[in-house]
Amino acid sequence: MILDKTTAQIIFVIILLTVGFVFGVAWSNQQFQTNTAAATTNDRIETIESNGFTLIARHVGNTDWEYAVTGVLSNKCSRYDLTEIVAESIPERVTVTLAVSEPADDTLCAQELQKVEETGVFSASKDALVSFAYTEENTRPSATGLESKNEN
């Protein structure tokens, strides 16, 4: 049986579409497997909130973690210090601490919000127990350098 030109062209287009579909499905499946493998390699993310601040810690491979602490302090006179302590245990216990010191009561300070956006790294296994602590210290001296009447 001899096919006319139009029928041959239709069959050719159907074959091309079928081959293209098969290659598209195969490529899509490969991308899905690649993305799934990447997600399961570094899928440990911890998000912890304390006193209006948020810690997001992410295991990035081997014993490497990255973290970010975000939040807002009530004024520009407040100071803060960010530390991480890794307790050697199995699994490790990691505590990221945000220590905020407020100025003495007699210190004049504009009530302007201060954004906190800090990042850091620590070393611990993927199974580490991560916690976040907020502490407030009212031990900063007054503007004169002497203890304020209200400080103990």
Molecular structure report:
By secondary structure, the protein is an alpha+beta fold. It folds into 2 domains: 1-41; 44-137, no CATH class. The chain is 24% helix and 41% strand. The chain is built from 1 helix and 7 strands; from the N terminus they run αβββββββ. It has one helix at residues 5-41; strands spanning 45-50, 53-61, 64-73, 79-87, 93-101, 114-123, 129-137. The strands form 2 sheets. It has a 4-stranded antiparallel sheet with strand order 1-2-3-6, with no helix packed on it. Strands 4-5-7 form a 3-stranded mixed sheet, with no helix packed on it.
What would a concise description of this structure say?
With about 150 residues, the protein is an alpha+beta fold. The protein has one helix and seven strands, in the order H-E-E-E-E-E-E-E.
| Uncertain regions spanning at least 5 consecutive residues | 36-40, 146-152
Q: Over all CA atoms, what is the radius of gyration?
A: 29 Å
- Biggest β-sheet, characterized? 4 strands, antiparallel
Written as H for each helix and E for each strand, in order along the chain, the element string is HEEEEEEE
Question: How many helices?
Answer: 1
Instruction: Write down the domain tally.
Output: 2
* Strand content range: 35-45%
